[in-house]
Design goal:
The complex is a heterodimer of chains A (about 400) and B (about 300). By secondary structure, chain A is an alpha+beta fold. The two termini of chain A are about 50 Å apart. In chain B, about 45% of the residues lie in helices and about 10% in strands. Chain B is globular, with a radius of gyration of 25 Å. Classes of the chains: A alpha+beta (about 400), B alpha/beta (about 300). The interface between A and B is medium-sized, with 41 and 27 residues.
C-alpha cells in the first residue's frame, strides 16, 4: 500500500497543475455549502439571541425590520423619529420599563447610541476599563469600537456631522471617553454609548453657551429687555462639555417632545407584556409595538428560502463538477494508457494498477478534505466577525 | 444501604433543595429593601419614616454643602444610577440632575403634584436666543417647598406613592407610616400658624432668600437679605440693611443657621433680635428633621412672645 501511495504521490507531484486544479475544484464545491451553513447558523444565532432577549420594541409605524435592525443592531437605516412621550406613555402604564434609544448619529462610522443607564442593566453590560457615563458629554465605548478607533479612557471622540454642507445642521460634539465596555460579541461591541441628553446636544436641543447676563462683548446681545436679555446669532455654543461649562448646558423645550428612534419595553411579566401589546393594536395608536423575535424569524425564513435556492444551485454545480472530474479521470486514463501498459508489462497485476489509481484519487480527495477542514475551521473561528461584516454590519 | 439507594436519596434531596431555592428566589428579590436616593435631607427623612426597614435611604451630600447647589462626583452619580427610586424635590432644586445620566423613569419629582403653586422668583434676569423662550440657567423658581408644611405633606405623599408603586404588597404599611408622618408635619404647621397668627404683620427680615414658601404659607410680613450666618456682613450690606429698616422696621431677623456673635451683637444694637429657623436642607449634626423643626418652632415662639 505504501508503495502505491509513494508512486501516486510522485505522480501528482509531477502533474502539479492537474493536481491543484482538481483539489481546487473539489474544495470550492464542497467548501461553499459548508461555509454558507456555518455563516447562516452564526447569523441566525446572533440575530435571534439579541432578538429573543429584547421583549418588545415600540417605534414609528412603518418598516418593522428597519426598526429592529436600528434598535437592536444599530443599523444604518434610521427609522422615522418618535418622541420621548412614547417612552413616558409606557412608564405611566407601569406595565413595562421603557428604555428609550436614539440611534441616529455616528462617529467615524460607529453608531452613537443615546439611551438611559437602564440599557446597560438590561443588556448586562459592564465596564471593563474606566467607569459608566455620569454627566453630559461622557461616553462609553464597546470593546470593538474602542479597538478600531484606537482610543481609550481619557481620550475623546468627535461625532460626525450628518451632512458636510448643512451649516445649520448637526454640529460635531467632542465626547469624553470615560469607559470601555467588556466584550459581549454583540452589536454593543460596536457602539458609542451616551446619555440621551448628550445625543440631544448633537441635535442642538440641549446646548451650552456663555452666560448672556454677564457677558462683556455687547455684540453677543441683540436686545436687553426688562428682566430678559436676548442673545444675538453670534452667541458661541460649546462643542465640548467640560467641568467648567457643564453648568451652562440646558434643555430647550418640552422633554416629552424630544426625539428618539425607539423604546425597548421590558414588561414586568408576560401578562403585562400582552396587555401592553394590546394597547398598540387600536386604530388610533400612532406607534407600532413589535416582538423582535417575530421580525427576525420572518427575516430568517426569507434568508433560508434564499439559502434553499443557493443549495440547489450548489448541488447542480457540484454534480457538474463531479461529472467533470470523472471526465478528467477518464481522459487522464486514456492519455495514460501507454504508461499503464508499461506498468502491466513490468509485472504489476490489474489490482495493483487499480490500487495505484485509487491512491492518486485518494491523495486528491484527502488534500481537498484537509483544505476544506482548514477553511471551515477558519470560518468557524471568525464566523462572528464575518457575519457582522457580511450580513448585520 | 445499597449504592443505588444512596444515589437515589442524594438525587431526591438535591431536587428538593433546588426546588426550594427556585421557589424562594423571586420572593427574596421582592423582599429586598428598596434602594432610595434623595437630593435633599427632608426627602430622605420622609422616605425613612414612610419606608422604615423596607427602604435603604441614601442622601450622599456632604454635611458642609448646600444640597441645592452641590454637584456629586462620578462615584456618587453611579450610586444614584443604581437606585430603585431617586426622590427629587422639584422646583429646580438640585439642578445637577439635569446634567447627569440618570434614568428619567427612576426619578420622582415630589413637587409635580403642586406645580401650579410654585413661586416664581422675580429678581432673576432671564435670557433668550433663537426661537426658544425666555429661560435662566440659575432657575426661576423658589425651591424650599417643604417650609410650607402643607406642601411638605404633599411631598411626603408623593414619596409614599412612589414606594407603594414599587412595593404594592407593602402599601398598607407604607400608608400607615405616611399617616403618622403627616400628623407630625401637620402639628408643626398648626404650631407655626398659631404662633404667627398671634402677631399679624410682624415685620421680619430673613437672612437668606429661602423662606418664600414659609412666608406665603404663614402670611408673614418678611423681606429677605442675602447674608450668610458664618460671615459678618460688610459695610455695604449694613448700609443696605439700615435703609431697609427705614421702610420695614423689623424687630427680628430669622437666620438659616446659627449666626456669628458679632452679627448678633450688631443687629441687637440696631434693635433687631436674631433667631434661627433652619430649613434643614442637609442632614443635621444632631437629631432629625422633626427635632430641628420643633426647635425652629420654639425659636419662633420665643421671638413672637418676646
Amino acid at each position: 500500500m505504501i508503495d502505491n501511495l509513494y508512486l501516486a504521490w510522485q505522480y501528482v507531484r509531477f502533474n502539479r497543475a492537474k493536481y491543484w486544479t482538481l483539489v481546487a475544484c473539489i474544495t470550492l464545491v464542497a467548501f461553499l455549502p459548508i461555509a454558507l451553513e456555518l455563516l447562516l447558523d452564526e447569523s441566525e444565532k446572533q440575530l435571534l439571541s439579541r432578538a429573543v432577549t429584547t421583549p418588545l420594541v415600540i417605534g414609528a409605524k412603518g418598516s418593522s425590520l428597519d426598526l429592529v435592525m436600528n434598535s437592536l443592531y444599530f443599523g444604518d437605516e434610521v427609522p422615522e423619529i418618535i418622541t420621548m412621550g412614547a417612552a413616558q406613555d409606557v412608564a405611566e402604564t407601569s406595565l413595562a420599563l421603557p428604555i428609550p434609544v436614539y440611534v441616529r448619529f455616528r462617529a467615524r462610522g460607529h453608531p452613537i447610541v443615546g439611551t438611559t443607564v437602564d440599557y446597560f442593566d438590561f443588556r448586562g453590560l459592564d465596564v471593563a476599563d474606566g467607569r459608566m457615563i455620569a454627566v453630559l458629554g461622557d461616553c462609553v465605548l464597546g470593546a470593538t469600537a474602542a479597538q478600531r478607533l484606537g482610543v481609550g479612557v481619557g481620550d475623546g471622540v468627535v461625532s460626525s456631522p450628518e451632512t458636510v454642507f448643512d451649516l445649520a445642521g448637526v454640529y460635531p460634539l467632542r465626547m469624553n471617553i470615560v469607559g470601555v465596555l467588556e466584550r459581549t460579541h454583540t452589536s454593543d461591541d460596536l457602539g458609542i454609548f451616551v446619555d440621551l441628553k448628550t445625543a440631544w446636544i448633537m441635535q442642538g436641543l440641549v446646548h451650552g453657551h456663555q452666560d448672556l447676563t454677564t457677558v462683556e462683548d455687547q455684540q453677543l446681545i441683540l436686545t436687553e429687555e426688562e428682566g430678559n436679555v436676548v442673545g444675538s446669532p453670534k452667541v458661541f455654543e460649546f462643542t465640548e462639555i467640560t467641568q467648567e461649562n457643564l453648568d451652562s448646558f440646558h434643555f430647550h423645550g418640552d422633554e416629552a417632545a424630544a426625539p428618539i428612534t425607539a423604546v425597548i419595553a421590558v414588561p414586568v411579566d408576560e401578562k403585562s407584556g400582552t396587555i401592553l401589546r394590546g394597547r398598540y393594536l387600536t386604530p388610533e395608536a400612532v406607534h407600532q409595538i413589535i416582538v423582535p423575535k417575530e421580525v427576525i424569524d420572518g427575516l430568517l425564513t426569507n434568508i433560508f428560502r434564499i439559502k434553499n435556492v443557493l443549495d440547489a444551485v450548489i448541488l447542480v454545480v457540484g454534480l457538474a463538477t463531479v461529472l467533470a472530474m470523472i471526465l478528467v479521470f477518464a481522459l487522464s486514463l486514456r492519455l495514460r494508457r501507454r504508461e499503464i501498459d508499461t506498468i502491466f508489462r513490468i509485472g504489476c497485476g490489474r489490482a495493483t494498477i487499480t490500487r495505484l489509481l485509487a491512491a492518486e484519487i485518494g491523495i486528491i480527495v484527502v488534500s481537498s478534505a484537509v483544505l476544506i477542514g482548514a477553511l471551515a475551521a477558519a470560518v468557524a473561528r471568525y464566523d462572528h466577525a464575518l457575519v457582522r461584516m457580511l450580513f448585520i454590519r | 444501604m445499597s449504592a443505588v439507594t444512596r444515589l437515589s436519596t442524594l438525587l431526591i434531596a438535591g431536587a428538593v433543595v433546588a426546588g426550594l431555592l427556585v421557589a424562594h428566589a423571586p420572593h427574596a428579590a421582592a423582599d429586598d429593601p428598596l434602594t432610595v436616593y434623595t437630593v435633599s435631607y427632608p426627602l430622605a427623612y420622609f422616605a425613612e419614616r414612610i419606608g422604615g426597614d423596607h427602604v435603604k435611604v441614601t442622601f450622599p451630600a456632604p454635611p458642609d454643602v448646600d444640597p441645592a447647589y452641590w454637584m456629586p462626583d462620578a462615584n456618587t452619580i453611579a450610586g444614584y444610577q443604581g437606585a430603585d427610586v431617586i426622590l427629587l424635590n422639584g422646583a429646580g432644586y438640585a439642578d445637577w440632575v439635569e446634567k447627569t445620566a440618570l434614568s428619567q423613569f427612576r426619578l420622582v419629582d415630589t413637587a409635580a403634584g403642586f406645580a401650579d403653586v410654585l413661586i416664581e422668583l422675580d429678581d432673576i434676569v432671564t435670557h433668550s436666543h433663537g426661537p426658544t423662550g425666555e429661560h435662566s440657567h440659575e432657575g426661576t423658581l423658589a425651591f424650599t417647598t417643604w417650609l410650607d408644611f402643607r406642601l411638605a405633606v404633599l411631598q411626603a405623599g408623593a414619596v409614599e406613592e412612589a414606594l407603594s408603586k414599587r412595593r404594592p404588597a407593602l402599601a398598607k404599611e407604607l400608608d400607615a407610616n405616611f399617616e403618622e408622618l403627616k400628623a407630625d408635619l401637620q402639628a408643626i404647621d398648626d404650631a407655626i400658624s398659631e404662633i404667627t397668627a398671634s402677631i399679624e404683620e410682624l415685620p421680619l427680615v430673613m437672612s437668606h432668600p429661602v423662606y418664600q414658601y414659609f412666608t406665603r404659607r404663614y402670611g408673614l410680613n418678611a423681606v429677605s437679605v442675602h447674608w450668610e450666618p458664618d460671615v459678618v456682613p460688610d459695610a455695604p450690606q449694613w448700609l443696605e440693611f439700615e435703609e431697609l429698616l427705614q421702610s420695614h422696621p423689623a424687630e427680628w431677623m430669622i437666620w438659616e443657621g446659627e449666626p456669628l456673635e458679632a452679627s448678633v451683637a450688631k443687629l441687637a444694637a440696631a434693635g433687631v433680635g436674631s433667631t434661627v429657623f433652619d430649613p434643614c436642607g442637609n442632614r443635621p449634626e444632631e437629631g432629625d428633621f422633626l427635632a430641628v423643626m420643633n426647635e425652629n418652632v420654639e425659636n419662633l415662639r420665643a421671638a413672637y412672645e418676646d
